[in-house]
Write a structure and sequence with these properties.
single chain, 298 residues, mainly beta, 8-stranded mixed beta sheet, 6 helices, 15% helix
């Protein structure tokens, strides 16, 4: 699938042990290794993370061939980092086949099932489960069953296919959504106020605590879920010069970097390799402190 404006081109995960993480993402999830090496000083600077220059990095892709990669960067997990309690990228949602078979497939891996697959009454469109990886990154494995009224949900062509929604935790959902609409030309679609089990568990909240979430897309293509987090949420603990831990960075395709109108952490650079394919890229910091890398597709 060719990239179009707003499409998720990839997600970046930090992990304390790249070899073990590769065993999980390749051996268990079935992703294909496209490239491995070290983070260049130029790329580390572009991410605003000069300390990761020289760190081991691997780029993986679904066996479906979808134009969406997952990159693993070796970096220690900071003390005190607890998933689903801080602002920034909270999770990547991947489209998968046979979601009810995944808990057994992950036994003995570095993935911890924290939300087993379950059907949600009134939401027949998908069945999801949640797992944590070695770097405390959160992945939602989502089996799509039908499209929604205003959204096309992608069916998986391989057992684990592409990231199709990035979940963002923010202290101000409305302001964050406005930022993405104004600068990235995304479209705000649906807003829901629901008992969000993952948030309730993470913050020790009662079962009747409600969270508000909004969806952003381009046309019928879903892109972001923006979640209002409780007052107890904090900024993510990040070592100086490093990437945020866990779900560290999301890469979106854009038509033109020159039309974004945002300050880049470093000037745009044309980069080679299977992830960038000779395109220009640059990174901005979003309103919730999230790292958003933009790749120009023309």
């Amino acid at each position: 699938m060719a990239l179009t404006h707003g499409a998720i081109a990839g997600g970046l995960v930090t992990t304390p042990d790249l070899e073990s993480a590769l065993a999980d993402y390749q051996g268990r999830l079935g992703l294909k290794l496209r490239e491995r090496g070290q983070v260049s000083a130029s790329l580390a600077a572009a991410w605003g993370a000069p300390a990761v220059a020289g760190a081991a990095i691997a780029t993986l892709q679904p066996s479906s061939g979808a134009s969406c990669g997952i990159r693993l960067v070796e970096q220690p997990v900071p003390d005190g980092f607890r998933p689903v309690t801080t602002y920034g990228w909270a999770a990547y949602e991947l489209t998968v086949q046979d979601v009810f078979g995944w808990p057994d497939r992950l036994v003995g891996s570095g993935f911890q099932v924290i939300g087993p697959p379950r059907e949600i009454p009134g939401l027949p469109y998908f069945v999801a489960m949640q797992v944590l990886g070695r770097g405390r990154e959160m992945l939602y494995l989502n089996e799509v069953r039908s499209d929604m009224a205003d959204t096309d949900l992608p069916r998986a062509v391989s057992q684990v296919d592409r990231i199709f929604i990035a979940i963002l935790a923010t202290p101000d959902r409305a302001a964050t959504m406005d930022w993405y609409v104004r600068h990235l030309r995304l479209e705000e679609t649906s807003t829901f106020t629901i008992p969000y089990t993952m948030i309730q568990r993470a913050f020790g909240l009662p079962g009747d605590y409600l969270s508000t979430i909004s969806m952003a897309q381009v046309g019928r293509m879903p892109i972001l879920e923006v979640d209002d987090y409780p007052p107890a949420a904090t900024t993510r603990p990040t070592q100086s010069g490093h990437l945020p831990p866990g779900n560290a960075l999301v890469t979106l395709a854009v038509k033109s970097l020159d039309s974004i109108g945002l300050p880049f952490l470093a000037p745009p650079v044309r980069r080679g390799g299977p992830f960038y394919c000779g395109r220009r890229s640059a990174t901005v910091r979003g309103p919730a402190g999230e790292l958003l890398e933009l790749v120009e597709i023309g």
